C-alpha cells in the first residue's frame, strides 16, 4: 500500500504531520542559531536546565539525560538537569508558593547567569514555563523555548531569545515535532563543540 492507495483516514494521519515538519525545516536557521548559542554557553562552562509540564516534563528529562549520558558512543557528556525530576521539590514548592512558581523558584537557587534555560510548552501558555523563562532571561541565562501552535504567551511576551515552533494544534504532533527539534539541537551542539572554529561570532549565519 502506498500513499495513492492508502485509505483516506490513513493518509490524513500522515498529512497532518507534513506541514508541521516542513515548518520545522523552515526554521533551520533559527535552530542552528539556537544550537550555536547553546554550544557557546557550554564551552564557557554553563549548564543546561530544562523544564516543562505533563508530557513535556518527560521531554525535559529526555533532553537532560541525552546531554549528560550521550547514547552515541564517543560524544561528549555535557552538564544538564531537568527541573521536573525531583517530585518532592516540585510538589513542595507548588504547595507553598503555587504551581506557577515551581520552575522560577528552582532557577533562582540553582542557575548561574552563564547557564542555559530551555522551557517546553505545547501551547506556549504554561504559566510556570513562562515564569521560568522570564526569570531566567532576567538573570542572564540563555533562553530557549520549544512551543506549539502560535507560541502562546511565551512567544507573545518575548520570554525566550530563541523560539522553535511546532505549528500544529494537535498535542501528539507537537510532541513529535519537539522530539525531532531537540534531537537536531543536540546533534548541532555537539557538531559546533567538535569544530571550535564554528563557534566564532556570526559563523552560523553564513
Report on the structure:
With 206 residues, the protein is α/β, with parallel strands linked by helices. The chain has helices spanning 8-26, 28-43, 55-68, 87-97, 102-110, 127-138, 152-156, 171-194; strands at 48-52, 80-82, 116-121, 142-148, 162-166. Helix 7 (152-156) links the parallel strand 4 (142-148) and strand 5. The chain is globular, with a radius of gyration of 17 Å. The model has no long low-confidence stretch (mean pLDDT 93).
Q: In summary, what is this structure?
A:
This protein is α/β, with parallel strands linked by helices and 206 residues long. Helix content is 53%, strand content 13%.
* Structural class by sheet pairing and helices: alpha/beta
**Global mean pLDDT:** 93
SSE sequence, one letter per element? HHEHEHHEHEHEH
Strand content: 5-15%
- Sheet bearing the most strands, described? 5 strands, parallel
Q: Helix coverage percent of residues?
A: 40-55%
Number of strands: 5
Q: How many alpha or pi helices?
A: 8
Q: Name the shape in a single word.
A: globular
Q: What is the CA-atom radius of gyration, in angstroms?
A: 17 Å
Low-confidence stretches: none
The strand line-up of the biggest sheet is 2-1-3-4-5
Distance between the termini: 43 Å
Give the SSE map.
Elements: H1 8-26, H2 28-43, E1 48-52, H3 55-68, E2 80-82, H4 87-97, H5 102-110, E3 116-121, H6 127-138, E4 142-148, H7 152-156, E5 162-166, H8 171-194
Parallel strand pairs: 1-2, 1-3, 3-4, 4-5
Amino acid at each position: 500500500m502506498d500513499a495513492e492507495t492508502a485509505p483516506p483516514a490513513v493518509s490524513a494521519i500522515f498529512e497532518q504531520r507534513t506541514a508541521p515538519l516542513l515548518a520545522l525545516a523552515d526554521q533551520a536557521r533559527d535552530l542552528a542559531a539556537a544550537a550555536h548559542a547553546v554550544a557557546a554557553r557550554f564551552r564557557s562552562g554553563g549548564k543546561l536546565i530544562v523544564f516543562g509540564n505533563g508530557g513535556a516534563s518527560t521531554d525535559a528529562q529526555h533532553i537532560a539525560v541525552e546531554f549528560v549520558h550521550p547514547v552515541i558512543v564517543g560524544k561528549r557528556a555535557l552538564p544538564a538537569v531537568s527541573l521536573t525530576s525531583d517530585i518532592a521539590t516540585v510538589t513542595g514548592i507548588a504547595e507553598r508558593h503555587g504551581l506557577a512558581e515551581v520552575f522560577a523558584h528552582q532557577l533562582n537557587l540553582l542557575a548561574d547567569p552563564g547557564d542555559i534555560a530551555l522551557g517546553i510548552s505545547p501551547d506556549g501558555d504554561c504559566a510556570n514555563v513562562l515564569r521560568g523563562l522570564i526569570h531566567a532571561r532576567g538573570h542572564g541565562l540563555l533562553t530557549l523555548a520549544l512551543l506549539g501552535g502560535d507560541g502562546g504567551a511565551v512567544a507573545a511576551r518575548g520570554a525566550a531569545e530563541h523560539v522553535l515552533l511546532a505549528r500544529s494544534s494537535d498535542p501528539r504532533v507537537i510532541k513529535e515535532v519537539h522530539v525531532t527539534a531537540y534531537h537536531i539541537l543536540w546533534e548541532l551542539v555537539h557538531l559546533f563543540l567538535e569544530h571550535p572554529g564554528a563557534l566564532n561570532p556570526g559563523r552560523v549565519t553564513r
